[in-house]
Specification:
alpha/beta, TIM Barrel, eight-stranded parallel β-sheet, 8 strands, binds D-xylitol-5-phosphate, binds zinc ion
């Protein structure tokens, strides 16, 4: 099965209606992945849902799952999400004890392996390990809540990772998450991001399908090379 081409738009169900999830998932059939934010109230000061809910989303979603784990001890919990069938499982570098071993385990189960860094975490420690991951998520807000403002000071991290990926011929996807909307997605695309999470900008729009299309067009117009 071929993977969706860049630019990829992954709506976050954190901004969906939790008691009408099936209907809200149907509204994003035109997206590339559905972004699923798992929060444990320890790694971040917010709580969402766990594997039981993700299993139902997996069974219901018209598009593959891009799971973002904002949890402590992903070494223990992340493989479960790959076993459920999530196409992509991203855990935080700040929370993992053995990130490389965990990424290998996720791939072994059959998921794409992603690693996320918070706004205050430097990307350099990932430079030598690009091949171990399928996706690097550079958080563009402090993780925990939807609807926050984009931190443009994180863009140099995307630029550095893009440069590093180019230099070593890595095909790792560079994802941004937080405050992505018309007016900010352009900067992220220009910096080299190819995969865009958007919660409030998609589910807050009256025309959800149109909002996804608009974001994709803006990203396409501002990214300088296809990756
Ligand atoms: C925040 C989550 C995001 C969130 C983004 O910690 O990881 O995925 O849903 O929401 P917006 O797009 O509204 O900033
Ligand atoms: Zn997220």
């Amino acid at each position: 099965m071929s993977l969706p081409a860049a630019p990829r738009i992954n709506p976050s169900i954190l901004s969906a209606d939790f008691v009408n999830m099936e209907a809200d998932l149907a509204r994003i059939a035109g997206a590339d992945y559905v972004h699923v934010d798992v929060m444990d109230n320890h790694f971040v000061p917010n709580l969402t849902f766990g594997p039981q809910m993700v299993e139902r989303v997996q069974a219901t979603s018209p598009v593959p799952l891009d799971v973002h784990l904002m949890i402590d001890d992903p070494d223990r919990w992340a493989p479960r999400y790959a076993e459920i069938g999530a196409a992509s499982v991203t855990f935080h570098l700040e929370a993992a004890s053995e990130p490389i071993a965990l990424a290998r385990r996720l791939r072994e189960i059959g998921a794409r392996a992603g690693i996320a860094i918070k706004p205050g975490t430097a990307p350099e420690q990932l430079f030598d390990y690009l091949d171990e991951f399928d996706q690097i998520l550079v958080m563009t807000v402090e993780p925990g809540f939807g609807g926050q403002s984009f931190i443009s000071g994180t863009m140099h991290k995307i630029e550095q990772l893009r440069e590093q990926a180019r230099r070593y011929g890595s095909e790792v996807w560079l994802q941004v998450d937080g405050g992505i909307q018309p007016g900010t997605i352009e900067q992220a695309a220009a910096a080299g991001a190819d995969t865009f999470v958007a919660g409030s900008a998609v589910f807050g729009a009256s025309d959800v399908e149109g909002a996804i299309g608009d974001l994709r067009e803006l990203a396409r117009a501002h990214s300088h090379s296809p990756h």
